[in-house]
Amino acid sequence: MENLPEEILERILSYLSPYDDMLSAAQVCVQWSRLVDGIRSQRWRRFYQQIVNAYPKVTTVAVAKDKPLDSQRRSWQRPRSNIVRLTNTVRNRYKDSACYYKDSVYIFGGISMSDQTAFNDLHRFDLRNRCWSNSTLITKGTKPLPRGSASMVRHDDRLILFGGYCPSTHHLAHNDFSELYRFYNDLFVYDPLTSTWTEIKITPCNIPQERASHSAVVIGHSMIIFGGISKRTSFNDVWILDLRNFTWQQLKIDGITPCPRGGHSQIVVDEKRIAIIGGQKRLGEHFESLTDIWLLDIVQQRWQKIKVINENWMAPDIWYHPAVKINNIVVIFSNLISTLSAGVNAVNNTFNFDVTLNSISNLHMFILDFSNLQNEKITFEVTWRQPIALPVTSNKAHCSVLCRSEIFLFSSSNEETLYIIS
């Protein structure tokens, strides 16, 4: 192939998988490395433009069944879609934790949609071959206890798991929120190279309280968590974990702050700022949906509420719908009509913790334009764009993970289906 014209060689390399195959090709020689870098940049630009222009490709990855999946598409004309068949899947669940690492998406734990059983199994989806590696990964070390709504993020070659909760079915008849759930503030590290879990023991004098449905991101060597829900309270505190020595520090913030919440999304804006989107606010034993957006300057330790433009195009549910940031836009997959009707308290328009999360609905893609946050302004604003329908069905609390030039969306509902959006 060394005598091929460069444009022909580039065309051949463009058919490689963006994962291990592309990485291996880049190591052949300087020329191939340069061509691979160009192909990756082109793919990313094309992916970004297809999302921005509301014309993504949706690949449905599903267990083979007698009923063809094409019959579920109904009348959608856009986006484009195709189907890949699976031979195995993950037992249906929600509130699982997901993280992208190299050529795979790792799924940990979650709660059963049928009987509220919590899991502590770990699964790996092979993005290159579009299949689950095994029914369950065999791991070593100290495994986390079963849980859902934990945070899981990647730092270097490690996955960091924090917090979460486990339903206590023994106490369900008591109808007392504090007895229905057990919450955690423990910390675990998973090494994908050795498939080993390690529990990180930290002196309990300066650590976050037990919580679930919080958010976490990594900036540099720090994991930043915000908010969450516990037995009798919700949080709006900010904690930073130094991932080199595993020490916690709570930010002391003056001025206005977001109200306590859980089920929100947290986005990295740049190396010193994060954004919080939506979530749910606790009102006694019920919760109220939130749609506000806040910006935190970690260096100055200051919150600022963000002005929202085009609220009529806003996603009606921005709780338990994880957001994905692509360049200067944020993508949220949500239903077009609020699901609160399944668990609404008619007096104060609130909903129960788990009642509405099992409902299956068709998803739309909602886009938030974050480009104004990149400018140094006194008043920041973000803009909602017109949503588009997707040939995607899901319950709430699904996983959305940004990979290489594609989004992995997993909701192990009764259809046992996941989606690749590119």
Gist?
This protein is mainly beta and 422 residues long. The chain has helices at residues 6-13, 20-26, 30-52, 177-180; strands at residues 57-63, 80-86, 93-94, 97-101, 104-112, 118-126, 131-132, 140-141, 151-155, 158-167, 181-191, 196-199, 215-219, 222-229, 234-242, 247-250, 265-270, 273-283, 286-297, 302-305, 307-309, 323-326, 329-335, 344-345, 350-351, 361-369, 381-394, 399-402, 407-411, 417-421.
Q: How would you describe the overall organization of this protein?
A:
About 7% of the residues have low confidence. The protein is built from four helices and 30 strands. With 422 residues, it is mainly beta. The protein has a five-stranded mixed β-sheet with strand order 2-1-30-29-28, with no helix packed on it. Strands 3, 4, 5, 6 and 7 form a five-stranded antiparallel β-sheet that branches. Helix content is 10%, strand content 44%. It folds into two domains: 53 residues, Monooxygenase; 368 residues, 6 Propeller (Neuraminidase).
What is the radius of gyration computed over CA atoms, rounded to a whole number of angstroms?
21 Å
Helix content: under 10%
Assign an overall shape: globular
Strand content: 35-45%
Given as residue ranges, the uncertain stretches (5+ residues, pLDDT < 50) are 65-77, 170-174, 341-353
The number of domains is 2
Q: Kindly, what is the distance between the CA atoms of the first and last residues, rounded to a whole number of angstroms?
A: 30 Å
Tell how many strands the DSSP assignment holds.
30
How would you characterize the largest beta sheet? 5 strands, mixed
Please name the CATH topology of the largest domain.
Answer: Neuraminidase
